[in-house]
Design goal:
- This protein has 11 helices and 13 strands.
- It has 334 residues and is an alpha/beta fold.
- The chain has 2 domains: 205 residues, Alpha-Beta Complex (inorganic pyrophosphatase (n-terminal core)); 123 residues, Diaminopimelate Epimerase, Chain A, domain 1.
- The protein has a 7-stranded parallel β-sheet, sandwiched between helices. A 6-stranded mixed β-sheet has the order 8-9-10-11-13-12.
- Helix 9 links the parallel strand 9 and strand 10.
- The structure holds guanosine-5'-monophosphate and manganese (II) ion (MN).
- Guanosine-5'-monophosphate binds next to strand 12 and strand 13.
């Protein structure tokens, strides 16, 4: 994988660009895709954003979200666009397997493939150009850096600033995590100077749900959360019938995994959702417990040091029982 700056000469002539990101795109995935799309359009390229799956309703306020193609719903149309593309940008993920049913298509494409991501353990052989930097707070920060490196900061207008800011907010836990380094705040200063209304973005991300979601959270915290004090761990188990009972949609559960961290002494939170196709795990730690290694070792996953995800094809009961056995072996690390 060559450095991203080596790609810049190709961007001097108009390209047919496809931008894609991970399944169930979140604010950073969608924000980075849409900000890059708007920037490259301004530079004269033909740009399409294709998401591998559907996404949370609370990213629909983002400028350009209405133009994003859902691969699962419009596969034929998306395949034609992918076949005709000259450059594919892969944002906020680093291995094609994170794009679910799109993975086979992305692997087989012969166009130039570019990676921009901040997760650990990238599959760098899959990409011609790119940057993978785990020190970056978010992929949105990396899009800002790219625009800056290209000497194009003046092209950042309010819609682009809104998309970039959304990813900064979401991936730093509203500027709380260590990943919110000084450079992140410097970017915010610049976005504000370009007209960003930051309050609007916080509302779009966090005050944009329906009543059922808040009642679901209350129910889950009361009935579905176990505190394993001996392991400084909280475990939340959400069954498929819980999802149906509260009519839970994509994105409604985002953020719930952080709630148990408000309990004194809790250093690790695990949340499992019984989805139709798999049991999906989320892991969040405070301090020195490495969620990425844990997810990779035990649950076919990965991510960041303090936030990772994984999956299991076992039943809900079985995967939870396995987690409880595993966590005993990790107690010295938590
Ligand atoms: P979440 O728990 O919010 O789904 O994911 C936490 C972090 O881990 C995110 O950065 C996400 O991209 C990453 N992640 C989630 N699931 C997986 C997975 O199955 N494999 C890998 N490699 N990363 C994941
Ligand atoms: Mn991210």
């Amino acid at each position: 994988m060559k450095p991203i700056s080596a790609l810049f000469p190709s961007l001097l002539t108009p390209q047919k660009v496809v931008i894609t990101t991970h399944q169930k795109p979140d604010a950073d995935a969608m924000g980075s895709s849409l900000s890059l799309a708007q920037y490259l359009s301004k530079k004269g390229h033909e740009v399409t954003v294709i998401a591998p799956t559907n996404w949370a309703g609370w990213v629909n306020w983002m400028p350009g979200a209405a133009t994003v193609i859902n691969y699962e719903k419009q596969k034929e149309k998306a395949d034609v666009i992918l076949d005709n593309s000259t450059i594919l940008f892969c944002l906020d993920f680093n291995a094609f397997s994170r794009t679910k049913t799109m993975a086979a298509k992305l692997t087989q494409l012969t166009c130039t493939k570019v990676l921009i991501d901040h997760h650990q353990d990238p599959a760098i052989d899959s990409f011609h150009f790119g940057i993978n930097d785990t020190a970056k707070s978010s992929t949105c920060e990396m899009i800002y850096d790219l625009i800056k490196e290209a000497g194009d900061l003046s092209l950042i207008d309010v819609p682009i600033a809104e998309c970039i800011y959304a990813g900064l907010v979401a991936d730093t836990g509203s500027f709380r995590f260590a990943s919110a380094h000084a450079g992140v705040h410097t970017i915010v200063v610049d976005l504000k100077s370009r007209g960003l209304d930051h309050g609007k973005i916080h509302e779009g991300l966090y005050d944009n749900f329906l009543e059922n979601r808040l009642r679901f959270i209350g129910y889950v915290l009361l009935h579905r959360m176990e505190i394993l004090y001996e392991y400084n761990t909280a475990l939340i188990t959400i069954s498929n019938s819980d999802l149906l009972k509260f009519q839970i949609k994509t994105g409604d559960i985002d953020g719930l995994v952080n709630y148990p961290h408000s309990i004194q002494g809790i250093k690790m939170v695990a949340l499992v959702i019984d989805r139709e196709e798999e049991r999906k795990w989320s892991f969040r730690s405070k301090g020195s417990f490495d969620c990425n290694t844990f997810a990779q070792t035990f649950f076919e996953g990965g991510g960041h040091f303090n936030a990772a995800g994984g999956k299991s094809s076992d039943s809900l009961d079985k995967t939870v029982a396995r987690f409880k056995e595993i966590i005993k072996t990790q107690s010295s690390l938590i």
